[in-house]
């Protein structure tokens, strides 16, 4: 393979991995939205124009909390507020927690 071809192959591989990363982010986005409904988060939280009022509105939660803080609240809310009404979602699969955290951090 000459240098030009090698460079083209590398550029091509880089472009493909960018596309793959984009597709994964989109998948997590859809998964996150689905989990918010499936797990009953809206029983207590307003999101996308509907939901309960016990917890804070999650529409712009990504502006207030970073990924680490989101992960903490979701998996161990009592570590943030010992008297919280929010249940711990520590039984979720790590991919599900990742999807929720990524989704919420983009709000
Ligand atoms: C039983 C009610 C309830 C349910 C169900 C619930 N939460 Fe909460 N959540 C709360 C309350 C109340 C708070 C406020 C924190 C506190 O009590 O100090 C909170 C706080 C949060 C926060 C921090 C918001 C902020 O602005 O600080 C996030 C993020 C969050 N919840 C996400 C979720 C997600 C995601 C789900 C579903 C997987 C969920 N919650 C389910 C009650 C709930």
Structural class from helices and strands? mainly alpha
Unreliable runs: none
Shape: elongated
The tally of structural domains comes to 1
The third-level CATH topology is Cytochrome Bc1 Complex, Chain D, domain 2
CATH architecture: Orthogonal Bundle
Share of helix among residues?
Answer: 55-70%
Average predicted local confidence, pLDDT: 91
Brief summary:
This protein is 57% helix and 4% strand. By secondary structure, the chain is mostly helical.
Description:
The structure is a single chain. The chain has 107 residues and is mostly helical. It has a single domain (25-105), classed as Cytochrome Bc1 Complex, Chain D, domain 2. It has 4 helices and 2 strands, in the order αββααα. The protein is elongated, with a radius of gyration of 19 Å. Bound molecules: heme C.
What characteristics describe this protein?
57% helix; 2 strands; two-stranded antiparallel ribbon; binds heme C; 107 residues
Q: Which secondary structure elements does this structure contain, and how are they paired or packed?
A:
Blueprint: H1 3-38, E1 46-47, E2 50-51, H2 61-64, H3 67-75, H4 94-105
Antiparallel strand pairs: 1-2
The protein binds heme C (HEC).
The site of heme C (HEC) has 23 residues, from helix 2, helix 3 and helix 4.
């Amino acid at each position: 393979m000459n240098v030009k071809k090698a460079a083209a192959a590398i550029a091509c591989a880089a472009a493909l991995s960018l596309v793959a990363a984009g597709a994964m982010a989109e998948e997590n986005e859809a998964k996150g939205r689905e989990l918010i409904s499936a797990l009953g988060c809206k029983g207590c939280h307003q999101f996308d124009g509907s939901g309960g009022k016990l917890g804070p509105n999650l529409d712009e939660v990504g502006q207030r909390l970073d990924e680490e803080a989101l992960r903490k609240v979701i998996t161990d809310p009592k570590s943030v507020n010992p008297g919280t009404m929010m249940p711990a979602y520590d039984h979720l699969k790590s991919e599900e927690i990742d999807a929720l955290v990524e989704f919420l951090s983009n709000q």
